[in-house]
Specification:
Length: 299
């Protein structure tokens, strides 16, 4: 293993992170870039992944030659789709090996190591995964348009709909709805133009405002948060039904939800042992080990 490096990549809907370690696990450098969910396009996701990776190598003061000795594990939002997963894996990366999995799978590996358990990612999107032995089961995580309950993107979208309804007098206006409409100059046409090209990450940017307004007693925001909490509790209930006895909440909204969930869920919720980047690095090490075992004797 001397001379080898291992890179973990956590590619989500808001940002992409990378962590470079040596054979002993010492962190050499870290990097960060923009969105890398495969739903935004394979080329854009690849660009974000490479930008975050390059930043990690620069931080480690390592050049291109080191990349050829680096094994990479990637946890990518949207990689559950085998077609998209194959397309991103086929892109040019210039590393010794590349292993692609969903961000939920790498988060689960990081959270529980080799043990059984589940994780529920709560960020721009949402995605639950349960591991029992070699078997993986998923709950949700089918993307912003049809799934991702309780996610920042879904909350932001719901808030926008409520804001427009209030602007038209369909429901009573509130601080939340007025603040959202002011962002678009109180012009529904500007809102529509923005919405037509908005990414899940951009929709998700409204979620902190929703939670803040709910904490201040805003009635519209409070209803949205109550609905979102119920959705997340429903995802957790299903994960428990599928056999998850330990579930870690991870992602940007994990702490926000932890204090709002029903107390009955407390016994099954556990802190993650490690993060998704550590899980991705585990995959990279496994790939390196397989390559060494497959190498002909004397080569």
């Amino acid at each position: 293993m001397k001379g080898e490096f291992f890179l973990g990549v956590d590619a989500g809907g808001t940002h992409c992170r990378a962590r470079l370690v040596d054979a002993d696990g010492n962190i050499l450098g870290s990097g960060r870039s923009g969105p890398a969910n495969l739903t935004i396009g394979i080329a854009k996701a690849h660009g974000s992944i490479m930008a975050a990776s390059a930043s990690a190598f620069r931080a480690a003061k390592l050049g291109r030659s080191a990349m050829r000795r680096t094994h990479v594990g990637m946890g990518i939002a949207g990689a559950d789709d085998p077609v998209r997963s194959a397309k991103i894996a086929a892109r040019r990366f210039a590393f010794a090996s590349v292993t692609v999995r969903s961000d939920a799978e790498t988060a689960c590996i990081g959270a529980h190591g080799t043990g059984d358990g589940g994780v529920l990612i709560l960020g721009t999107g949402s995605h639950g995964i349960i591991r029992k032995g070699r078997h993986l089961r998923r709950v949700g995580g089918w993307g912003f348009l049809v799934s991702d309950h309780g996610s920042a993107a879904v909350i932001g979208h719901a808030a926008m709909r409520q804001a427009l309804s209030a602007h038209q007098g369909v429901i009573a206006a509130s601080t939340l709805t007025r603040r959202i409409m002011r962002k678009f100059g109180n012009d529904p046409l500007k809102m529509l133009s923005w919405a037509a090209q908005a990414t899940p990450g951009q929709w998700g940017e409204f979620s902190p405002l929703v939670f803040a307004c709910a904490d201040a007693g805003d009635p519209v925001a409070s209803r949205l948060v109550a609905d979102a909490v119920a959705d997340v509790a429903g995802l957790l209930d299903r994960m428990i039904e599928l056999g998850a006895k330990r579930i870690a909440l991870v992602g940007g909204l994990a702490d926000t939800y932890a204090s709002r969930l029903p107390r009955r869920l407390a016994p099954v919720l556990v802190p993650a042992q490690r993060d998704a980047l550590a899980g991705a690095i585990d995959l990279a090490r496994q790939a390196a080990g397989r390559r060494r075992r497959a190498r002909p004797a004397g080569s």
